[in-house]
């Protein structure tokens, strides 16, 4: 089984990489003959100003006193040049924006593999075609076009060689202005710092324009362009397609540029003209599709067809491999861990020679087809991988036959109901990546679950707890993740709630241990102290950042120590189910408080409460399958060796449990805060709740009396199947959404595929946290004084 597990990981790594091979391919075509126009240009030189991260509304709108933040640019709009809005495209990052500005094409999507920092394929640009280019600004932007720095304007008057160069034709001066973007990230675009920086930029442009005009003696041969590479959201981020990120200013004046045109009316779908008091000056937007001529449009369609020619073919092969692998994993579960295996002959029947020969023949034909097309080696992997997978599936024909026969014994209405609920649940998980409130809908459905089972009549108190915490947890996906102000008092409140809960546990321990101090009690006291320390660090950090004094060094040291120890301290606690899980919660909360800025600090606490209830709920559901043996949850040990006669096979409820696990895990992704009190660490903020869920799932498998073998395989296969189905909702009659065939959701596909791999790591981590124990040097117990 270990071999199959390793193969499964390799298959998922292949599927993970396929998305980049199929979608992230370079759109550039090389080898074309350069074309030139015989007409003389109106300008001898171009001066390009790019204000990194500047939003169109921030530049054009008037301040609270009715004055422009950029009076020089405003004067250009009204008296000297043309203006408008440039519509950028996703990804709204600095490199893609500058590539579009200077090279004239959308960013090469294959550059995602380089983090949008460099292009894996060479391309032509305005800089290449100019005779000389001088530039100033951010190194990470300038080096993309092999720019050089030089303070030369003063030296040009004394250096004849430099003087002759700057007086040549076809020269470019490029100024990349980074201050606005920096202030936007640090203080957000609505801040005074961001808006004041616009005034600083305006003054600087005025000074540079004056210097250039003086240097060239006002010869009228200089063209000026002022624009931005991208905008920025209200919470200080960019990269997506929100209008605040894609709408950027564009102002141009000088040689070859028309003077302002006054108009009485303009037709635009927005209300910007009235808001900016510019309704009488003609606005000329730059939109990179809408202005294309028919010939250019056809050429782009041809290029698109050329570059996407193999996309559908490769996509179908990857889907075939994915569906085959999911089917094979399901068949292994049915064969090894369900009652259906009893109806299958234990004798291993040799498959017909026709079956392997058929697959070998198909594989040879596919390989020959790829060979004559001179395809890269990765195409062979994607196209030939489904062959052995489907061969393994068809070898289990007896299992498939028994499974179908077993399904036919179900009442049709019940079978349809199962399929509908399962498929609908998968689609809800998929949609939750696009609409967070779908998680709320799912949790509300979870809250209603006891009413459609016997759980409500058999255990009302547990059912009420399940309903309460499910509905309470359903509030979190409705809360804003970004665009909100930090609320340190919510963080402090979460810490106090955990301390009160810990105090009650410590009190019970003191009573139970007859006033003896033991390692367990000392550990809880130490973890409580750690939570208090985390609260103090979070509060002082918030205060320091609010005063713009930076992050204190002491806070950084304490934070790293707390984060490092959060997964070590639980190993000192007893391995009894409740005490170990509670210790994991305390250590996790110490770290999570450092990463929180508001309501999300309450998330692990509410999630853990629901997880404790889930453990009890699942134990109650065993009675539906006539499992009479039931040990109390408080007496269970993670390291115990229960009676093997009490072990059972897998039921349909185990599929539901795996579905619950993935659903609760996805909640961790939905609760990541945009900014953190300590430092930006979203992975840690996702990891902590996910670990809590995985540890609870370990307890669920223990309380539901699965054998260690079944428990291990239930995670390995059930959960991976559920995650895979989220990646390819190609199930039954409701293939509504498919991550793979939706270009706009590639990031979501990558997240899901990463979950498949990360689940394996988290399963091992949860097993370590729940079953292992570190023994300290033994000391005799001492009485409390």
Précis, in short:
Pathway: Glycolipid biosynthesis; glycosylphosphatidylinositol-anchor biosynthesis. Its main location: endoplasmic reticulum. With 785 residues, the chain is mainly alpha-helical.
Please tell me about this protein's structure.
It holds the Pfam family PigN. Belongs to the PIGG/PIGN/PIGO family. PIGN subfamily. With 785 residues, the chain is mainly alpha-helical. It has 4 domains: 42-285, 3-Layer(aba) Sandwich (Alkaline Phosphatase, subunit A); 309-403, no CATH class; 410-436 and 448-463 and 611-774, no CATH class; 483-597. It is 56% helix and 6% strand. The chain has 31 helices and 9 strands. The protein has helices at residues 2-23, 56-60, 71-79, 94-103, 126-129, 139-142, 153-156, 160-166, 179-187, 192-215, 243-246, 272-276, 294-307, 311-337, 354-372, 377-384, 386-395, 397-408, 412-431, 437-448, 455-458, 460-473, 488-512, 519-546, 553-565, 577-594, 603-621, 652-670, 682-703, 708-727, 746-771; strands spanning 45-51, 82-87, 132-136, 171-177, 222-227, 247-254, 286-287, 516-517, 782-783. Strands 3-4-1-5-6-2-7 form a 7-stranded mixed sheet. A two-stranded antiparallel ribbon has the order 8-9. The two termini are 56 Å apart. The model is unreliable at 143-150, 674-680, 709-716, 726-744 and 779-785 (pLDDT under 50).
């Amino acid at each position: 089984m270990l071999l199959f597990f390793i193969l499964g990981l390799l298959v998922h790594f292949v599927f993970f990489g396929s998305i980049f091979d199929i979608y992230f391919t370079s759109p550039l075509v090389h080898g074309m003959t350069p074309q030139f126009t015989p007409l003389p240009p109106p300008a001898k030189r171009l001066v390009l100003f790019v204000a990194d991260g500047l939003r169109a509304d921030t530049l054009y709108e008037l301040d609270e006193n009715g004055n422009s933040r950029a009076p020089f640019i405003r004067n250009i709009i009204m008296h000297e040049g043309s203006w408008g809005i440039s519509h950028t495209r996703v990804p709204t990052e600095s490199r893609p924006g500058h590539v579009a500005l200077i090279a004239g094409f959308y960013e090469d999507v294959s550059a995602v593999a380089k983090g949008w920092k460099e292009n894996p394929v060479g391309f032509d640009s305005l800089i290449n075609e100019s005779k000389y280019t001088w530039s100033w600004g951010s190194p990470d932007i300038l080096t993309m076009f092999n720019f050089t720095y030089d303070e030369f304007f003063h030296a040009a008057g004394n250096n004849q060689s430099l003087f002759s160069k700057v007086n040549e034709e076809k020269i470019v001066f490029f100024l990349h202005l980074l201050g606005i973007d920096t202030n936007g990230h640090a203080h957000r675009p609505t801040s005074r710092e961001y808006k004041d920086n616009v005034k600083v930029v305006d003054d600087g442009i005025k000074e540079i324009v004056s210097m250039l005009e003086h240097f060239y003696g006002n010869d009228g041969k200089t063209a000026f362009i002022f624009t931005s590479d991208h905008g920025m959201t209200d919470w200080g981020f960019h990269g997506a397609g929100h209008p605040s990120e894609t709408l950027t200013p564009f102002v141009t004046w000088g040689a070859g540029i028309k003077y302002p045109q006054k108009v009485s009316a303009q037709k635009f779908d927005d209300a910007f003209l009235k808001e900016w008091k510019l309704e009488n000056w003609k606005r000329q937007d730059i939109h990179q599709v809408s202005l294309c001529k028919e010939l250019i449009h056809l050429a782009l369609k041809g290029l698109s067809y050329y570059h996407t020619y193999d996309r559908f073919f490769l996509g179908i092969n990857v889907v075939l491999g994915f569906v085959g692998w999911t089917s094979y994993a399901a068949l292994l579960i049915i064969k090894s861990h369900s009652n259906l295996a009893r109806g299958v002959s234990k004798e291993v029947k040799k498959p017909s020679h026709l079956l392997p020969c058929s697959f070998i023949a198909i594989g040879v034909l596919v390989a020959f087809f790829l060979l004559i097309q001179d395809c890269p080696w990765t195409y062979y992997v994607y196209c030939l991988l489904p062959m052995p997978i489907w061969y393994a599936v068809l070898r289990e024909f007896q299992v498939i036959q028994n499974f179908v026969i077993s399904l036919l014994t179900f009442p049709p209405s019940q079978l349809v109901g199962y399929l509908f609920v399962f498929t609908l649940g998968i689609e809800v998980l998929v949609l939750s990546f696009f609409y967070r409130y779908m998680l709320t809908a799912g949790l509300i459905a979870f809250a209603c679950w006891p009413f459609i089972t016997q759980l409500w009549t058999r255990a009302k108190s547990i059912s009420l707890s399940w309903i309460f915490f499910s509905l309470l947890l359903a509030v979190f996906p409705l809360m804003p993740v970004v665009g909100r102000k930090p609320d340190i008092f919510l963080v402090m409140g979460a810490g106090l709630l955990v301390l009160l809960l810990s105090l009650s546990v410590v009190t019970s321990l003191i009573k139970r241990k007859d006033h003896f101090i033991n390692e367990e009690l000392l550990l809880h006291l130490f973890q409580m102290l750690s939570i208090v320390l985390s609260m103090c660090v979070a509060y002082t950090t918030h205060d320091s950042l609010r005063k713009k004094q930076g992050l204190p060094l002491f806070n950084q040291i304490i934070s790293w120590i707390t984060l490092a120890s959060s997964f070590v301290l639980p190993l000192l606690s007893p391995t009894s189910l409740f005490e170990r899980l509670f210790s994991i919660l305390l250590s996790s909360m110490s770290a999570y408080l450092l990463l929180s800025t508001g309501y999300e600090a309450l998330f692990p606490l509410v999630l853990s409460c629901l997880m404790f209830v889930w453990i009890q709920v699942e134990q109650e559901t065993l009675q539906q399958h006539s499992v009479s043996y039931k040990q109390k949850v408080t007496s269970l040990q993670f390291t115990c060796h229960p009676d093997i006669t009490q072990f059972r096979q897998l039921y349909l409820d185990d599929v539901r449990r795996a579905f619950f696990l993935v659903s609760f895990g996805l909640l961790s992704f939905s609760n990541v805060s945009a900014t953190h009190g300590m430092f930006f660490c979203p992975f840690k903020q996702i990891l902590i709740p996910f670990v809590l869920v995985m540890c609870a799932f370990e307890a669920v498998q223990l309380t539901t009396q699965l054998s260690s073998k079944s428990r291990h395989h239930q995670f390995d296969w059930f959960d991976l199947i559920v995650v895979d189905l989220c990646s390819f909702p190609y199930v039954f009659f409701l293939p509504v959404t498919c991550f793979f065939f939706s270009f706009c959701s590639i990031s979501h596909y990558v997240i899901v595929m990463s979950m498949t791999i990360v689940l394996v790591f988290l399963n091992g981590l949860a097993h370590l946290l729940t079953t292992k124990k570190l023994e300290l040097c033994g000391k005799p117990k001492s009485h409390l004084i």
